[in-house]
Task: structure prediction
Amino acid sequence: MKYINLFEKENVSKLCYGTLSLSNLQNFDTVENKVKLLNYAYGKGINFFDTAELYDNYNILKEFIKDKDRDKLIIASKSYAYDKNTAEYSINKALKEMNTDYLDVFMLHEQDNGNNFLGHYSAVERFMKYKDKGIIKHFGISTHRVEAVRDSLKFKEIEFVFPLFNYKGIGIQDGTFEQMSEAVKKAKEHNKFIMAMKIYGGGHLINEAEKAFKYVNSLSFVDSIAVGMSTVEEIDANISYLENNELNINIKNKIRNQKRTLVIEEWCVGCGKCVKRCRQNALRIVDNKCVVDMEKCVLCSYCAGECTDFYIKIV
Ligand code: SF4
Ligand code: SF4
Result:
């Protein structure tokens, strides 16, 4: 495993386990099996885990953490908190449901730009108080937009930037790969910690996974890479890309066959809530039913959280 420093914390695995793939938005396996996967990854040297309030999977992290030395783990989470109360709710929920005393990183989820950040500033101020008490070690944002990465430079509070970043620019909402790359590079020059997400473009690059991984991994301004993994083979594959090891042909074939897709159940009533939520413009209503354009979808699952009847699934 390749290890890096996350500010003062040493020996942080460069490969971060993105646990959206273990949330009920995407994965219907048992808690026990999901914890087994986390333990498998941990046994292979992964000690960095990313979650979110939206993923609703703190219970899985709690089970995983309970027999570990907490100080040897790095846990990142995020929420849509927009004021003091929602910030307090988010932090208390994360601490309680994961049964931990602190969070290594906490982010505002899915930020658009500096104005959007300022709109959440009373939450940010509360997060800073948690940081003063050591309850949050570092604070940041996650985003699918170039503008948010660029604007992160304006805010000293933002130490950690978690952008959508893949070599084809798939899913970037307001620009090209080159523009995102430039923004990320600048953020790094301003000492932000950079963790790339969606390096496989929400599954679109899965047939060229090795190339996609190695490209992002080769960039000196990317500190860490978060990948959602839902099988042992995916964990093995990502570790072998990171370590430049030859990947077993059986694993290669299994990964190719694991391409996921978004399914909308026939019971959809066409309410359109999910359509409004999708910033990738991948959803529309046709004949009172929601339909997805998989060319645009990055499998972020944000829409699934909107459908209270659970008619949207990633399988
Ligand atoms: S939120 Fe659910 S019911 Fe409404 S359009 Fe989307 S899939 Fe259909
Ligand atoms: S359709 Fe849903 S999963 Fe796909 S990009 Fe839009 S919000 Fe994300």
Observations:
- The domain at 262-314 is CATH 3.30.70.20 (Alpha-Beta Plaits).
